Amino acid sequence: MLISEALDLKERAFISLVGAGGKSTLFKGLAQELSKQKKKVILTTTTHMFSWQLTPFIKKENLIEFNDEKIMEDNIKKIFFKNKNKEIVLVHHRIKEKEGEKISGPEPLYLDKWWEDKLANYFLVEADGAAGRPVKAPASHEPVIPLSTTDLIGVLGIDALGLPLQEENVFRSKIFSQITGLELGEKVGIEALAFLICHPQGLFKEAPPGCRRHLFINKAEDSKDRKMAKELAFQVLKICHRRISDIIIGAAGQKEVVAEVIRRINKP
Q1: Predicted local distance difference test score (pLDDT) of residue 268
Q2: Which residues in 78-96 are b (16+ Cβ under 10 Å) and which e?
Q3: What Cα–Cα distance (Å) separates residue 11 from each residue in 14, 95, 250?
Q4: Which of 94, 106, 133, 264 has the fewest CB atoms within 10 Å, counting from its CB?
């Protein structure tokens, strides 16, 4: 099953990704799928992401790199006028950092405007960073999710289970502790991850009203991982089934990304 099929995407969708534990790999896989659908696709970020994450999609004719959103908009229209079946990468600034070059994208309000103006069929946006950890808790200034988001994907790695709650394992570990009640140094368990997912200040913090919330439990690469992922999924559904549209269990780095999809059953 394709990622886009698991998400049950509509003919047009504004997709934002948040969380940790393989979010960038999932972004890449979904971008590759959407670019093959002969639709207009815009790829960008509302935070800072490494340049290499977008490298597979950057060609001379589809990179729009300006710090002026009006010029960006004009160029989007020109590229799509010439070729309606293309992905476009939007870069606002390039930032040199110790870990490597990062890029930023246009302001969310411009993305919202371009969605309203129907400039593309699909918008795919990375909306926060995670410093390569398997799980994270959002800080006060994040995530930065455009209001037009129709599909919000919250990602975490099942490999976080059993790890001590410390910064090298959990990005913003002190905030994670505040949200879940888990003490620093204690091992991350299913209950703590479920609290993070369901808490208003947790994984789906700042979710725009009306958007569908998809939980992607990543790195479920073998039967043991998938079993633990299912246990987490059912714990989440017990706590906050009304807020989660579906739960996807899979491994973004494998050829067959999606292992299982658990759809929400509406209860009275």
Answers
A1: 40
A2: ebbeeeeebbbbbbbeeee
A3: 10, 34, 24
A4: 94
Identify residue 225 by its one-letter amino acid code: D
User: How far is it, in rounded angstroms, from Cα 192 to Cα 181?
Assistant: 8
Helix (H) or strand (E) holding 16: strand 13-19
| Residue 77 structure tokens | 């229209």
Tell me the C-alpha distance between 64 and 73, whole Å: 9
Closest CA to 144 of 173, 110, 182: 110
Average pLDDT over residues 84-93: 82
| pLDDT on residue 54 | 82
For β-strands 87-91 and 122-126, DSSP reports them as unpaired
**CA distances (Å), origin 230, targets 31, 225, 233, 261:** 26, 9, 5, 10
36-40 CB contacts, 8 Å cutoff, 24+ apart: 37/4, 38/85, 39/85, 39/120, 39/121, 39/122, 40/80, 40/84, 40/85, 40/86, 40/88, 40/119, 40/120, 40/121, 40/122
With beta carbons less than 8 A apart as the criterion, state whether 42 and 117 touch. Answer: no
- 100 Rama class: left (phi>0) / alpha (psi -120 to 50) / beta: left
Q: Return all residues near 205 (Cβ < 8 A) that are at least 6 apart.
A: 18, 138, 143
CA-angle at 57, arms to 74 and 30, nearest 5°: 105
Give the pLDDT mean for 157-162. Answer: 98
Using DSSP bridges, classify how beta strands 122-126 and 48-50 pair: parallel, antiparallel or unpaired.
unpaired
Instruction: Report the DSSP beta bridge partners of residue 104.
Output: 48, 93
260 has pLDDT over 70: yes
DSSP letter string, 234-247: HHHHHHHGGG-SEE
